[in-house]
Amino acid sequence: MRKFLPWIIAGGLLLIIGFWYIGIKNGAVRVNQEVNKEWGNVETSYQRRNDLIGNLVKTVQGSADFEKSTLEAVIKARSEATSVKIDPTNITPEQLAQFNQAQGNLNSSLSRLLVTVEQYPDLKANQNFLKLQDELASTENQILTARTRFNESVQKYNNYILVFPNSMFLGNYKEKPYFDAVAGAEKPVDVEFDFNNEKK
Q1: 3-state helix, strand, coil in the chain (%, to 5)
Q2: How would you label 21-39 residue by residue, b for 16+ Cβ within 10 Å and e otherwise?
Q3: pLDDT tops 50 at residue 195
Q4: How far apart are CA 109 and CA 104, in angstroms?
Q5: According to the model, what pLDDT value does residue 200 have?
Q6: In sequence order, which residues have a C-beta less than 8 Å from that of residue 35 and are 6 or more positions away?
Q7: Whole-prediction pTM value?
Q8: Has residue 18 got a pLDDT over 70?
Q9: CA distance linking residue 161 with residue 173, whole number of Å
Q10: In the prediction, which pLDDT does 60 show?
Q11: Angle at 19 between CA 16 and CA 20, to 5 degrees
């Protein structure tokens, strides 16, 4: 019996190492799936905003004398924002920056639209428009929450795959980028109202 003891110990150690390795791999799958889920929530929030913007544009188009160029800018930015697709399993900093830039351009053109509406008393009093505006504000909060949770899940994922000894076994898992603010977001927005040309 004594001569088999080293083999039993070696077999036990191999079993422990095997379960430990499986645990590391399964943990990587779990944190990766969490990132994918949170990215799905980000996309859902942005999709809701895009849908609301479409309804807002239709409402504004009903005002015959509304600036055509302002509407066209929003429609174009919305189209560009929806055309950027990202696979969360293979996300790169460049892809995320491109997505972020497209969404930032849409946000900028939407802000110009909402400022321009100030010159149209009928639109400002339109109940449908006011409801859509409130829903957009609520959706912006949802987007902020979704982006924050995505970054938290990326931090958890990156910490898991980069720490030793996990990094020894997870070479095929790559570090994922964080959602950064759009360039220039730290600067205050300069909003100008031209009350001299306000339409009656």
Answers
A1: 75, 0, 25
A2: eeebeeebeebbebbeebb
A3: no
A4: 9
A5: 37
A6: 88, 150, 153, 154, 157, 176
A7: 0.80
A8: yes
A9: 7
A10: 84
A11: 85
